[in-house]
Amino acid sequence: MYNIMSAKAEEFIDDSEILSSIEYGKENKSNRELIKSILNKAREFKGLSHREAIVLLECDQEDLNAEITALSMEIKEKFYGNRIVMFAPIYLSNYCVNNCTYCPFHYKNKTIPRKKLTQEEIKQEVIALQDMGHKRLALESGEDPVNNPIEYILESINTIYNIKHKNGAIRRVNVNIAATTVENYRKLKEAEIGTYILFQETYNKKAYEELHPSGPKANYAYHTEAMDRAMEGGIDDVGIGVLFGLELYRYDFVGLLMHAEHLEAYKGVGPHTISVPRIRPAEDINLDEFTNAISDEIFEKIVSILRIAVPYTGIIVSTRESKKVRENVLKLGVSQLSGGSKTDVGGYSVYAEEEDESAQFDIEDTRTLDEVVNWLVSLGYIPSFCTACYREGRTGDRFMKLVKSGQIANCCQPNALITLKEYLCDYASEDTKKKGIELIKTELEKVTNPKVKETAAKFISQIENGERDFRF
Ligand code: SAM
Ligand code: SF4
């Protein structure tokens, strides 16, 4: 039985509720009155239920689909402006005891070189990332209680935060590691992580069990209930996602929104971010075996409707996507982007010279961070290296309240400009610098609050004089 307030995975992600929502979506795909009423509700910017969202996903009316696109762009603009938060992943270890059939790190893959970074090597990787200009990382690791115990992860987080090289600093470490215990989540919270990220991969229990034949991750309920445990352990910013292409996308789309609804109802805070990875080719992984791949068109529609359904949740797109797709989804709702990423252990520096046959997946967007920043600026976006909210304690429901009141724009916009300025002074190529300085000038003019504008301008000139790390 579907129960949004249940602590049990099979009840808050109820299979029959998902299936009947999909049916409802299909039945109403041409129901213009219903679709229009859902769009009108969405225009109040309070989000949509999973049932309403699937109707929009199914909608086959050309003019109404155009309205959906326009509304997602409006919501993106209203809550996120033209800021795009930048980050990069750091792979610590590809030792893994799980057997995820889509991931080359799986235990049975004997051909992949297994690597685990020492603290000294982590330092080297982080210096390389700092020298690119990154301030925010997503820590990634396989699951292996012997090779990568929680103590290793905690020590690594501490190492990362403490590396100060030139003007560089990693100011926020988000963590993407396997589902764990409340006690371990508490330790991660104490280590001052930003967001705890865990992808569900698929919400379909049967498919999940087939895709995860052995290892701790094979336990569907333990994995699906992980965010509840993370919140119990004190982590209030959690990031969810599915790996599109594993199961049928409608099922996972509805499941993702039901998960978000559950977290909001049961824990009082919805997810901080939603990631929308699509499965990619990799060593030992034959994409022909995964027949549920989704087209760019469906992918873009999913992003659009997520933007409408959960207006206050950030949407993350990685370098799994091409430049072209990234450009499209930026308009429709994406608020965070990775740049210059490597998905192999030590890929930035320690093992940078080696062939990347140990990568987790092939990257589609292989541009450097500077190229990505240059491209964003040319498109009129402000690449933001801001980490202020989390450092000011604006997390969980405090963050959500600020976003909902529209107040966040008063900090995010100037913070984006300030951190872009730091990037331009310390890391940018001449061309990026030139374009970026112009953008900052134009964008500063648009700040409406005179006091905020004056302070931001002051910070920017102090950065020019060598000072760093200002924030609102
Ligand atoms: N090992 C942890 C786990 O599985 O939750 C966390 C990190 S894992 C390195 C990060 C994510 O990469 C996985 O959750 C999965 O969705 C994604 N991934 C695995 N194989 C992939 C592939 N072939 N293409 C795209 N993404 C993949
Ligand atoms: Fe291990 Fe994660 Fe890859 Fe699964 S997805 S094999 S748990 S690294």
Structure commentary:
There is one protein chain. This protein has 472 residues and is of the alpha/beta class. 48% of the residues lie in helices and 9% in strands. It has 20 helices and 9 strands. The protein has helices at 9-12, 15-27, 32-42, 50-58, 62-80, 119-132, 150-162, 182-190, 205-211, 220-224, 226-232, 249-267, 296-309, 323-332, 369-378, 388-391, 396-404, 408-426, 430-445, 450-464, and strands at 83-93, 136-141, 172-176, 196-197, 238-241, 273-275, 314-317, 336-338, 382-384. Strands 1, 2, 3, 4, 5, 6, 7, 8 and 9 form a 9-stranded parallel beta sheet that branches. The longest helix has 19 residues, at 62-80. The N and C termini lie far apart (46 Å). The mean pLDDT is 96. It binds S-adenosylmethionine and iron/sulfur cluster. S-adenosylmethionine (SAM) is lined by residues 102-103, 140, 142-143, 176-178, 198-199, 201, 243, 277, 279-280, 282, 285, 320, 360-361.
